[in-house]
Amino acid sequence: MNKLWAPWRIEYINQIKNKGCILCNILKEKQDKKNFILFRSNYCFAVLNTYPYNNGHIMIVPNRHIKSLEKLKDNELLDMNKSLIKIKSTLKRTLNPGGFNIGMNIGSIAGAGIDKHLHMHIVPRWQGDTNFMPVLTNTKIISQSLKELYILLKKEIIHHP
Length: 161
What we know:
The chain is an alpha+beta fold. The chain has one domain: 2-Layer Sandwich (HIT family, subunit A), CATH 3.30.428. Helices cover 40% and strands 16% of the residues. It is built from six helices and five strands, in the order H-H-H-E-E-E-H-E-E-H-H. Helix 4 crosses helix 6. About 4% of the residues have low confidence.
């Protein structure tokens, strides 16, 4: 088995292990730039995934700590879906992907890394973005820093609210 040295992940692991819900924590901190929160709405917020599957991977997260999709209130569902459309449009204008993967991983068995706080993923996709690296080395290459991407997307959201 190949090993990829990734010491920066220990901060994420410790946050989850020691301090409760990472999504609730970043919401309460009100340090949006530090935590890569792109915007806050009445019932949810949009945040860059700090361990993305692809460049521009964003999560739409309800403000309320909730595990079950069925327990979302109508205003939360509507707000999350409007936020999803806003983020998709922003990504289309700024990164011009050929398509998107949009969905939720509900429960750890379904791949949810944070399974106690429901969230929606939007992942931009480009022709050929899956190359030999993941297949041969089980390694994904992300070609843009989160800080650079955050600034680009934040500026676009401000200009197109």
